[in-house]
Amino acid sequence: MTPGDLVLTGRGIRFMGQYWPCTVGRNGTMGNKREGDGCTPRGIHHVVGMLYRPDRLPCPAPWAQPIRNGDLWCDDSAHPAYNQLVSAPFSGSHEQLRRADPLYDIVLILNWNYPEASQDQGSAIFVHQWRRPGYPTEGCIALSRRNLLRIAGLIEPGTRVVVAH
Questions:
Q1: Residue 146 belongs to what H/E stretch?
Q2: Is the pTM of this model over 0.90?
Q3: Is residue 53 helix, strand or coil?
Q4: Residue among 8, 4, 50 at smallest CA distance from 162
């Protein structure tokens, strides 16, 4: 591992020689991730995209893409667009990326079951803003807004996210 890896530890994310408090899925981490299980998948993942709300914050990195009105993420494992960015109107089950709350104001997209998705193996595994310290996610990794913005400005596409425990 390198200092530039985001490594999940019992103390938070270790990155660039510091620990950054974070939360994970409500059911912890799991090696055998399934859609809707509330677990953060174990493994070595890579950051393959970054999305942000341009109406709420400046572009955090040159490679970040804006979240637009109608941007959704398909979580319908039976749909051909499963675990993909899609646009409204969309008939399959999905998550709204442009939310009223700030959770997805900045999103780091991980390559878990993406871009080639296997049915029911989990979707929308992101690094995003937490609701509050200690509040679990549905399977993502979440950090404070301040720390997420700092990390987003320092990473590059392909940065490794190591979830080992």
A1: helix 145-152
A2: yes
A3: coil
A4: 8
